[in-house]
What we know:
Elements: E1 3-8, H1 14-25, E2 30-31, H2 32-36, H3 46-57, E3 62-65, H4 72-76, E4 81-85, H5 89-103, H6 118-142, E5 147-151, H7 154-159
Helix pairs in contact: 5-6
Amino acid sequence: MDRIVVVGCGGSGKTVLARALAARLGRSVTHLDALYYDECWRPRPVEEFVAAQRDLVAADRWLVEGNYAATLPIRLARADTVIFLDLPAVVCLWGVLRRRWRYRGGQHTDGVYDRITWSFVRYILGYRRTMRPRVRQLIGEHAPAAKLVVATSRRQANRLR
């Protein structure tokens, strides 16, 4: 496990899992939200976001967590391990609410701002219907030789730590 991608719905536990893996493997984790947004929570220019990911995955070892399906092929093409947290919407919503309570709507320690909008809730509710097939397709197309680990429950996800 040298080049690891962690993907899944918002609230699925990507950040928690990535932090635990990073500690266990003795490396740092890159949170895509921290790359995508600047310090004022404004999206960076697309070209800058893409370039940052290309530079990141050029390294021999890395651990990246986050979705951003439009740029997922960049990460998948170099990944040797893909961890897909495919949890039910209710579990993800509970994860978002727990995160909201923990950070009180402020910034996480990784510089990522915790915000809940109705569009984000709708995204979570529709993730398995709309995004899951797309993510699975992208994994099949861009990371066919990578080891794929899928967790469909919080218990399975916790075992990966």
